[in-house]
Amino acid sequence: MTEARLRALVALAETGSVRAAARRLVVTESAVSAAVTALARDIGVALVERAGRGVVLTPAGRIYTDYARRVLGLLEEGRAAARGGEDAGRGRLRLAAVTTAADQVLPALLATFRARWPEVDLALEVGPSSLVWDRLAAHSADLVLGGRPPADLPATVLATRPNDLVVVASPGVAAAFALDTTPWVMREPGSGTRRTAEAYLAERDVDPPQLVLGSNGAVIAGAAAGLGVALVSRDAVRDELADGRLAVVDAPGTPLHRPWHAVAGTAPTATTRLFVSHIIAVGGWTQEGGSLPS
After folding, report:
1. Locate the HTH lysR-type domain: which residues (predicted)?
2. Are 12 and 4 in contact (CB under 8 A)?
3. What's the whole-number average pLDDT of the chain?
4. 80: which of 92, 161, 187, 205 fits an S-S bond (Cβ 3.0–4.6 Å)?
């Protein structure tokens, strides 16, 4: 059950075909097929089955792939911990951030961190909250910058930063705002901000029209263009508020206080702790839970 075989199975699951998995791994298609066949032989159950001209995972294959992801993540985590244990400033840090945090708070933090510790091997993945928490659960990320982590996720909140969500719109839409009839411009499914907006409307028992635009930038642009109101971080629209393209809507119960969280697994690596110490020192973050765990 070599690491290469596990990577072949995960690549096949994530790309949907032997050919695409081979391209991702830069190996031959026959190498991918042989690796998955060998895994199935070792385990004693079929992991894939024919579907037309391609293959799909069997129920057993889907179950085993979830474990394979975690095993591969743990191996990467172990490498990162070993490298950082010798010298945190030369270790590896796998960051994952929700799109809004990546847009608003991460660029300046990465720039100053890079300037101080240029030998840290940084990797960054950006996506909706559902993706980044999955990465942490699978040990594929060392640190997540996002909202509050799911209650069932084994995780350690190392630092937080204030973040207020406000309802905004173009001045004309803001002046005529009605909670139950004014359209809402929404993020894509899987976004934490979208879930918060949906919960906000449900709590007030209203169901206004919704327009899904699919990214934080598109939502802000849509609100400024007069398509409706949007729930966004105040930090994300400071320029638009300052120049009058957007106005804060006096919606009931807002602003919503939803701080950013810097979240690691239960055993943060030395390089993870180094990055968190940096954002506390220079980025307006507040340490949580006493001293950073060693």
Report:
1. 1-58
2. no
3. 90
4. 92
- Contact (Cβ atoms closer than 8 angstroms) between residue 95 and residue 143: yes
Q: Per-residue pLDDT averaged across 161-172, rounded?
A: 95
pLDDT in tens, 37-63: 999 999 999 999 888 777 889 999 999
Q: Is the pLDDT of residue 294 over 70?
A: no
**How confident is the model over 72-101, as a mean pLDDT?**
84
Residue 180 to residue 209: CA distance in whole angstroms? 9
Q: List all residues 6 or more positions away from 144 whose beta carbon is below 8 Å from its beta carbon.
A: 95, 96, 97, 132, 133, 135, 136, 261, 262, 263, 264
What is residue 56's predicted lDDT score, i.e. its pLDDT? 87
pLDDT confidence bin for 291, thresholds 50/70/90: low
**CA distance readout (Å), 287 to 81, 88, 160:** 21, 19, 7
All residues at 6 or more sequence positions from 5 whose CB lies less than 8 Å from its CB, including other chains: 35, 36, 38, 39
Q: List the Cα angle 233/107/276 in 5-degree steps.
A: 90
- What phi-psi label fits residue 161: left (phi over 0), alpha (psi between -120 and 50 degrees) or beta? beta
Burial 61-88 (b: 16+ CB within 10 A, else e): beebbeebbebbbeebbeebbebbeeeb
CB 274 within 8 A of CB 112: no
In order of their start, the domains of the chain are: 3-57 (1.10.10.10), 88-163+259-287 (3.40.190.10), 164-257 (3.40.190.10)
Q: DSSP strand E in the chain: where?
A: 48-51, 54-57, 92-98, 121-127, 143-146, 156-161, 164-169, 184-186, 210-212, 230-233, 247-248, 256-257, 260-264, 286-287
* DSSP conformational letter for 149: P
3-state SS class at 35? helix
Residue 41: which H helix or E strand, with range? helix 29-43
Give me the mean pLDDT over the 282-289 stretch. Answer: 87
